Amino acid sequence: MPFSSITFIFLFLPITLILYYILPRKRWRNLILVLTSLFFFIWSDPTHIHVLFTSILINYYVGLLIGKSQERNVGNKAKTMMWIGIILNLLLLGFYKYTGFFLDILEAVFPLTINYTQRAFPLGVSFFTFSGISYILDIYNEINPPEKNLVRFSAYLIMFPKLLQGPITRYMQIKDELLAPKFIPLQIMEGVRRFIGGLAKKVMLADSLSIATQKIFTANFQEMGAGLAWFGLIAYTLQIYLDFSGYTDMAIGIGQMLGFKLPENFNFPYISRSISDFWRRWHMTLGAWFRTYLFIPMEYARKREKFLRQQTNLLIVFLLTGLWHGASWNFVIWGVYYGFIVVIESSGFGKKLKKTSPLIQHSYSLILIVIGWIFFRITVIQQWGSFFGALFGTNGWTNSITFRSLNVLFYLPFLLPSVLFSLPFMNQLSEKIKNKGGKTLVALDLGYILLFLFTVTFILSKGFTAFMYAEF
Amino acid sequence: MKKAHRFILSLFFIIIISVPGYWLIRGKPDNQVSIVEGRVLGLPERNYPTLKIAIDYIRQGRIDLAFNLVWDLYTGGSLQKKFDGAATDQFPFRMDLIKFAKSIDRWIIRLAYSLTNDNVIPADMTSDIYIMLDHDALILPPGRIDQNTYENIDIRLENYKTITSTYSEINFYIYYLESLQYSKYNPLNKYFAKADQGQSFTYFRENLTDKIQLKCMPLLSLEDYLRKFYRTDHHWNTNGILEAYDGIYEILSRKKEDFPKKLQITEMIEFENIEFLGSSARRTLYPISGDLFIGFQAEFPNCTVSDQDIVGDYNYRDEYLNGEIPTTPYIDHYKYYFGRQSGVLEYDC
Q1: Residue B24 contacts A where some CB pair is shorter than 8 Å
Q2: pLDDT at position A122, please?
Q3: CB A195, CB A315: distance < 8 Å
Q4: Is the dihedral of CA B200, A211, B89, B91 positive or negative?
Q5: How confident is the model at residue B48 (pLDDT cuts 50, 70, 90)?
Q6: Which residues of A belong to the active site?
Q7: Is residue B296 part of a domain?
Q8: What is the mean pLDDT of chain B?
Q9: Count of domains in chain B?
């Protein structure tokens, strides 16, 4: 059930909010949250509900066992349980998401023929397994005690706003709200703004650009001119940000409506001044997860090594970041590409870059980010050469496949608002108005309501299907 | 001011609650056919016969069968899909809101094309139908030709050869109706490097077995297209029908001296109060003026028309001539006047 569907906005969300807030006892709210989240998941992915239950039970009981071992000062047992928990989570993730990929590698390396068909993996599996691992490690590291209440723990792990696409949330980040759910009108109002903004970004901009990019990236690059190739790449750069950050805005907004403050996931990544900066601004909760649970422990474990320690650790982290995004070589290469750049930046280049003008820093970052999206978007590696060729003019500025022949010319006006919403400008303006208050704030909120109605018309318009031969 | 501000954001909740509230209060709607879309709109309680069967199973105590049925329906995703579709279809003021969204789409298209000198631009963002601004006509883009096209034609040619040699006692005819998509007069050809421009038909004609008689209703110019086809639809109009009838009659009567007499058109009837908005107008919701709808009278032979042995008229020609003309926008006058276009009608004359 996408957040941008009529069913979600006009049925699931109001029913959930009503049930959540009319209950006489606040502690029942977590139960409502769990039940609605289960319904939300079952509606979207009914065949994998057992995976969700398995994940809840594994992490809940492993957490309890680690806590008990720590209480009894049995450090080794706690460590063993921690490793069991991590391995079980990784097995869950690996079995559903990476089996086909690793079997392909085995087939390529060894003279084997394995009959295996990759099936659809559970929705959000990468997110809830990473949340589960963070929960176990935080208990092991005594950052927070295990949650003894199964309902409360389930609410943390599977709450629907963050279940399918994050933000990856640590238990300690929402523990207080889970313990004592609160009704904060101002936060709810802020949640409404956030939800509407995200919905508009997703539906009106990202979804529109996605139609253009889908046409461009499935066309024959050998017949594509540089103009169209650059448009496709820029449109995709904007689309992926607006789509993901739009979804995150909706998730954070819904979280706020339910009284939770979910962590931020984006901080205007396209204004980064370096690639290291980009990864502090893009999918921040994933970056934080890898930094906290992989990079820092690896640095600590290898602290005695001097030669290329940080560099190799960074490469491992980025390789795994790429692999996390998808079980395919293009994602691995995408991750390694960033890994190498970050290694270069951390080896002295970053300091030199900081001394250059902001324009050079922004240009450098943006060019590398945009090129990175080629590896991400085009999953068939053999096509990269022809796309780069098209970008750099080997087929001329225009060729047989054009804006008109793909019917994507009218997506050009979407670029300007997409750029505006990818920069801090709109956000800063909105914050200024909020701080100013008074009539301008009323006007802003009226604007939000109109934007919401406008976005709903777009959603409905997509469902308009007049059949050509219905009458003939 | 604080109160006003809170009220405005509360509007969000009022709106999202009022929609399901509207569904509850309204109950089951009377009319569920969307003329514009040519389909029955989704309605949750009416579209789930499987659920009814499952309930019947439960009543009969066959819980396992009921469970399996519901499980399959649910895990297959069709239940959710139908429900989502119904929620969208039943949205209050849906059609008005869609028309509004389409007008915004057109505004964006015009903005994008204002940078060009094109006078044929997309009519909307989804259908791949274009509007010829200087002719106020909706058209389809050119069909493309490539190696696959030739390969498909070769397969068809080979098939025709096999059929004609297997049934050598039968006369075979092909009447080809050239559409704007495959014509050299499509005004969009210049933008499509692989536009067909009649090449596929030329190849077909040159390689067709001589055991088949081929005749064509060619397009002679863009104006010729506009004369023979509706502006709001990709189908031929009465002019096209009559020209095709002449052509088909001519090839069929070539080898048979006792071929029945040609129909004589006694009267061309212009229904000036009909605004015919065809499928292209429906699909795009483009604000285009309707086509003039022209019918004709002829000395039709006295035939009994039946569909699977059920005798009937299968058209509303007499009603139209008596002035009983439906006025619903986008209603398919073509279908009602000339008769149904699907299924097999048998004429016993």
Answers
A1: no
A2: 87
A3: no
A4: negative
A5: low
A6: 325
A7: no
A8: 86
A9: 2
> Tokens 């049930």 map to which residue?
A19
Please say whether the beta carbons of A87 and A157 come within 8 A: no
Q: Are residues B82 and B227 in the same domain?
A: no
**pLDDT per position as a tens digit, A209-255:** 999 999 999 998 998 999 999 999 999 999 999 999 999 999 999 99
Residues 67-106 of B with CB under 8 A from A: 74-75, 77, 80, 83-85, 87-89, 91, 94, 97-98, 100-102, 104-105
Chain A residue with CA closest to B337: the answer is: A472
Q: Tell me: do B51 and B177 sit in the same domain.
A: no
Q: Is B13 on the interface with A (CB under 8 A)?
A: yes
Neighboring chain A residues of B335 at a CB cutoff of 8 Å: 471-472
For A68, the enclosing helix (H) or strand (E) is helix A49-71
Domain that holds residue B33: 2-92
Whether residues B229 and B148 fall in one domain: yes
Distances in Å between the Cα of B58 and the Cα atoms of A157, B62, B63, B117, B178 are: 35, 5, 5, 66, 58
Task: Give the 3-state secondary structure percentages of chain B, helix then strand then coil, rounded to 5.
Answer: 45, 15, 40
Among the partner-chain residues A10, A44, A458, the one whose CB lies closest to the CB of B19 is A10
Q: Which residues of chain A are within 8 Å of residue B98 when distances are taken between CB atoms? A: 457, 460-461, 464
Pairing mode of beta strands B212-217, B172-177: parallel
- Condensed to tens digits (0 to 9), the pLDDT of residues A274-319 reads 999 999 999 999 999 999 999 999 888 888 888 888 889 999 999 9
Q: Which of B4, B105, B193 lies closest to A442 in CB terms?
A: B4
Distance separating alpha carbons of residues B244 and B99, to the nearest angstrom: 36
Which residue of B67, B90, B95, B97 is the best one to mutate when testing the A interface, meaning the one whose CB has the most A CBs within 10 A?
B97
Q: Which of A199, A161, A191 is nearest to A458 (CA)?
A: A199
CB contact under 8 A, B235 and A472: yes
Give the phi and the psi of residue A362 in degrees, each rounded to 5.
Answer: -65, -45
Instruction: Check CB contact under 8 Å for A11 and B87.
Output: yes
Query: CA Rg, chain B, in Å?
Result: 26
The set of residues, in sequence order, having a beta carbon less than 8 Å from that of B52 and lying 6+ positions away, is none
Note whether B63 and A420 are within 8 A (CB): no
A14 vs B16, B113, B282: nearest CB = B16
Q: Tokens representing A375?
A: 């590896």
Residue B277 lies in a domain: no
Nearby residues of A392 by Cβ (< 8 Å), 6 or more positions away: A226
Whether B271 contacts B320, CB under 8 Å = yes
In this structure, the answer to whether residues B112 and B70 fall within a common structural domain is no
Amino acid letter at B347? Answer: Y
The dihedral through the CA atoms of B74, B80, B81, B87 has a sign that is: positive
Q: From the candidates A43, A194, A441, A471, which should be mutated to test the interface with B, based on the most B CB atoms within 10 A?
A: A471
Report if residue B302 sits inside a domain.
no
Whether residue A181 is predicted with pLDDT greater than 80 in this model: the reply is no
Contact across the interface for B37 and A467, Cβ inside 8 Å: yes
Residue with tokens 């999202």: B16
Distance (Å, whole) CA A452 – CA A467? 29
CB B346 within 8 A of CB B306: yes
The answer to whether B125 faces chain A, any CB pair under 8 Å, is yes
